[in-house]
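The following block was generated as part of the benchmark described in Methods. Ligand: iron/sulfur cluster.
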Amino acid sequence: MELILKGHDYKYAVEQIMLLMFPEERPVYVESDEGGSAFACSELSGDEKLSRTRLRYMGREVVGEAAFEGELPADEMLRKRETQKLVKLSFFKAAREATGTNPPWGALTGIRPGKLAERFMRQTGLGIAEAAAYIRDEYFATEDRALLCAETAEVAENLRKSFDPNDISLYIGIPFCPTRCAYCSFVSHSVEKSFKLIAPYVEALLKEVKEAGRLVRELGVRVVSVYIGGGTPTTLSAEQLTALMNAVNEAFDLSACREFTVEAGRPDTITREKLEAIREGGADRISINPQTMSDRVLAAIGRRHSGAAVTESYRLAREVFPGAVNMDLIAGLPADDPEGFRQSLDEVLALDPENITVHTLSLKRGSRINLEGTTIPDGEAVGEMLEYALSALRGAGYAPYYLYRQKFTSGGYENVGWTKPGFDGVYNVCMMEELHSTLSLGAGGVTKLVNPETGLIERIFNKKYPYEYISSIDELISAKEYMKEFYAKMRG
Ligand code: SF4
């Protein structure tokens, strides 16, 4: 699409809305508006209070406008936030008229829509109904999405109020899986290819855990949630899991820890001994992630287990493990359809887990589905799946507790964690809403340092691949010493 910007240089904001509304188009900046059949001129007035977008598409020419009432903030960052919003909204309005479509999240393009609702609640002191109306009216999100956003924002706000500035979460990554799923774009290595790396990886990780424990004591911060994720942590043997859990318990004071999750992930890795190791290590939440209960879809995504195996693993977990269980499903998998998704969700609901997370398939670069050009359900079919999920989960007594969006999802939909009353997953909310710092250990781990007062965020990256993580473990441990500087600045 040919683009001209006048009175501003918010290229990224304009391109975000263009890609949202015209995913097949790519931006081409031009000097003149003559000739292009797909063209937009985005303008911001001199006083920055009015944005106007003139858009030509498929033979139609339309105009969208957005205005700011009152005085723009004096603070430059806040002012930019408002003026960018005007530019986005005027483009969105024009595009909506030209295409006759309104995406489920309206003009919202970020991965954390809940932050807007949280800010609204903090600034106004108002509740869910008003925050939902704000998201619907200001950003043109549908009623359902606006409500999801406001409900999850309230959970995050309540959690935020309960934390001390010195609280942190701890993440430990195990980047191995039995086989690689077709839609996977994570740094996850199938065991077939990387079995030899697992033992040295665990050894390096135990070293990092021990040193991170020392650092946490020196910093005077306290761990309030622990999450061992992946990959599939239960790819480790029961002995390796025990060694890891023991190391975590020895290194960290977990007396203030509110939640300790271990992703048991795929049923083809779950055994009684591993579940016992997780239980004995003090975890109180596990995740068993079928993604679908359909054998046909499981085969299509490259998983070597059946839906019945998920049920078996779940029953075993209930026998051995007394804590909460989360189960993940994905809407939009290849070979699935709305009826198949409905059946999967009904089967999972019948198992009665404390949490159910419903993701929308996101096809990032590097996933096999993308590489092989496999066909997947379209946006409309995914919309039907999620509509059913919304009503079935609410009907079964689950409430949404965290929400995020990813790029490249069919229909621009979202991922939502649902919970039975009293089982909101602490780590997921803290991490997604950036409520406090997360110390991340293991390959691919990104330590996120959050100043809850100012919102300032800094990151420390571990090496991505297991082999480089193993060989640079001492360097990675030293890099985390930067946390001392961050906290010294934060504490003034
Ligand atoms: S289980 Fe998760 S991390 Fe592992 S291959 Fe499948 S999608 Fe990737």
